[in-house]
Amino acid sequence: MRRLYRTLLIGLVAGLVGISLPACLENNENAPEDALPGLNADGVVLIAYANSTPVGAADILCSGVTVGDLVVTAAHCLGSGRPLRVILDPVDLCDGTPERGTAITEAWVRPENGADIAVVQVDLSRPRTPPARPQSATWAATGWGTSAGEAGRCTSRTVELQATSGCASGESALCATGIGSNTCSGDSGSGVVDSQGRVIAITSSGSSCRQGAPGVYAKVASLESWFEGQGLSLAR
């Protein structure tokens, strides 16, 4: 088993906003969705900058999914400089209720094979709502992505996804695009859920937020042994 890169980060911060990374290359060798193992997530979170004031819509950085006391998100959401907070969905950041969230106390990042996945530990005690399953597509991703012209979101949204071509996905990721809308800034780290309710990938990057643009989603199966080292087993 390859050496685990374990990073202890108290007051984690993020340096990359959104999911725009270098443009994808042609590759669509994705396994069938029913063949991909995934995590049994039990909740959805937003990851926001932790300011002295309550977290607002403009503070949203990334999204994530919960598995017990752990949050799975994109590794690039954990960067440098500013402390982060995790807030459990459902929540309305614009209803006037102060939301300060929960501080991240520890994180494990896996950069070895380029998989854009990280696991962080938090204390989230209130009831949770599992991520939405797809209604008319192959997968669904619930996150806090913004649309063109939006400064931030008040509530989460769900984007339906299907496989496409145009990405340098390789074996460790899948290439997908949104139906009706697409993942965008703020959706990084959101879980890609199949019809069985399993999180089979994590939203990583995309060249555009427009409908039909391809995006890269890091497969959790590519890091199965690493997840097991964090106490997380994949469901099949």
Task: Give an overview of the whole structure.
It is built from one helix and 14 strands. It is an all-beta fold. The protein has a single domain, classed as Beta Barrel (Thrombin, subunit H), CATH 2.40.10. The strands form two sheets. Strands 1-7-8-4-3-2-5-6 form an eight-stranded antiparallel β-sheet, with no helix packed on it. Strands 9-10-11-14-13-12 form a six-stranded antiparallel β-barrel. The longest helix has 6 residues. The radius of gyration is 16 Å and the shape is globular. The N terminus is likely disordered.
The main β sheet shows up as:
8 strands, antiparallel
* Name given to the CATH architecture: Beta Barrel
Order of SSEs, N→C?
Answer: EEEEEEEEEEEEEEH
Instruction: State the total count of DSSP E strands.
Output: 14
What structural category do the secondary elements indicate? mainly beta
Inertia-based shape: globular
Total count of domains: 1
CATH class value? Mainly Beta
**What gap, in angstroms, lies between the N and C termini?**
22 Å
Tell me which oligomeric state these chains represent. Answer: single chain
What is Rg?
A: 16 Å
CATH topology: Thrombin, subunit H
Count of helical regions? 1
Strands of the widest sheet, in order across it, are 1-7-8-4-3-2-5-6
Low-confidence stretches: 1-33
State which percent range the strand residues make up. 25-35%
Helix content: under 10%
Give the overall average pLDDT.
79
